[in-house]
Amino acid sequence: MWLACLHSICSLGMPMDTVHVVPSVPPTEPYAISDTVRITAYSRTKFSELGRSRVGFETSVDIGSGVELLESEGVFMKQYGVSGSTTVGRRGADATQTQVVWNGLPVNNPMLGMSDFYNQNIWSMDHVELVEGGSSTLVGSGSVGGTLYLNQNPRFYSGSNLQAFAENGQYGRNNQMLRSQVGTSRFYSSTTLTRRVNANRFEFFDPIWMADRVLQHASNAQLGWNQHLALQSQKPGQWQLSLKAEQLQSQRHLGQQWGRESSLGIQQDQLFRWSFETQSQTPWGLFLMRLGQTSNAIQFEDGTTTLVEWDSSHSRAQHLQLEYHWSHESWELMAGQDGLRILAQTPFYQQDKGYWASFIAVNRSTNQWKLSLQSRLEWVERLPTFSLSGERQLGWNTFKFNLHSSFRRPTFNDLYWNSGSVPDLSSEKGYGAEISGLKKWNEARIQLEGTLYARELDNPIVWLPSSSSFWQAQNLYRSQFVGCQVHSRWQKGKFLWTNRWDAVRSWVWMDPTQVTALQQLFVPKWNGTSSWMYKHEAWQIALRANYTGARYIQTDNQASLPAYTLWELSGNYQIPQTKWCLGLGSENLSNVSYQNMPGRPMAPRLLYFSIYYNSQLSQ
Description:
The chain is 5% helix and 56% strand. It has helices at 3-11, 44-49, 66-71, 136-139, 412-416, and strands spanning 54-58, 77-79, 86-88, 98-102, 105-106, 127-132, 146-151, 159-169, 173-183, 187-198, 203-206, 211-214, 220-232, 239-253, 266-282, 285-301, 307-328, 331-345, 350-365, 369-378, 383-394, 397-408, 428-441, 446-458, 461-465, 471-475, 478-492, 495-509, 526-536, 539-548, 551-552, 560-561, 564-574, 580-587, 606-618. The strands form six sheets. It has a 22-stranded antiparallel beta barrel. Strands 1-6-7-4-5 form a five-stranded mixed beta sheet. Strands 2-3 form a two-stranded antiparallel sheet.
């Protein structure tokens, strides 16, 4: 969880913000809370972030999974134990309402509707950005609470670079990464190889047995590779081709619950995805075409050597995206078509469905205002969405607002799992608004940003027991959410202090006649992070506290999991006159015994050591 800080000291010195930034040249002024380095002018990220609260991560090498990356910025991750699925939900939304976009392609599993962040390899990404609130106008279904963009961008003229990382820690932690990059005036290539192994053999207190036990059946292993190739015209900006491909193979023993000796099972994941993109600049604007596919294969074993065939699933999501970009003076326009075909096969169903959507986005900038108007139409569902955003700059102060609608269509599992026929499910339809202000003092060395938001979701889909004794997806009546987010930053000399805190309240009604609202489960009332960093010459020390508030585990607003605070301490040392950097640290420094989800023990205090190598072989 500390490699982003390590890379900062090894490359540039103390990072200028909670956002870990590694640009191609050192920044010359403080990095603002809401600023984001523009890698490409033709990214949907640029249009979606206007008027929104967001967190940007600019990294040339970073920690290996999306879990640690997001937790370092105070994002609550729902973890089913140390080796189970890990998902994210923003602003009270669950994981099916937070869309992940990989190099322009929405990649949430079409059967499950969510992304398991254990299978998100961040080592090969160049830019990661979390945009709060719904962005269905630009990415379609599933972007209700937030959208996480994972982007790779060609670095022409960058020369040759080699990076290597190795980490070893307690309880069998063993991670390695190797990345090579070559960038000339017309060609770019990046190759990343990764290996992650965790035995997770630690002691935990079992309240059922009333004794300390060693966790069994919780090891995991993952191998991955990523390849990015790009070619551009002799005169930069005329045309560009890029191909990105990634494969991850993992095996996870899903652990054991309190009071049990047997394994919860073994899950094997095989993920392969690719994206081919062309950009062509003409006198009439820029034309972009993107083809891509994501394949997921999941198999579940019951702890024996026999594979349980009824728990295997395979899915493919095929994408065709067409975009047109035009700009003139203070105007920017983006319009396009999105085509999606989903194929899925399980022992319960086989499905092949297609969807088509049209969208348009217009931005207008003046001396003080930036405005954005967006709309989208899903042709199959005849479902429109819209977004209106604005930002006003007043000296060192910024005011932002956003109004939007969003939606999530039922997943294939919602529609067909165990039911034998299509249940009468409607798409979730959401509406949201947010308003925020950013205040800067002392030439932006002190910054404070606050955001208030409210959203409503009609027809929320949940799984409940049915009359046939099977669990089945059903539409509830309505849910509502209100919350606030606060981000502060204070830099003085070599010291940096940052905070990011979220609070959310939720109300859920099963039908219009219900008087007392229910509570959204497993959403912390409060969560956030505070971090302190100090750098002196070749040394950097960082201390971070991650707080997770109480999470309801019953809808009657009674039982909840207790709050906890996890401390992390790390120190990094750049060996003088070399390209080597050493790191030493501890997670869960105060040795807190806690549960992220009920009955799933998490790791106690953990010590780790790492070594990082970064060499610019040629210019």
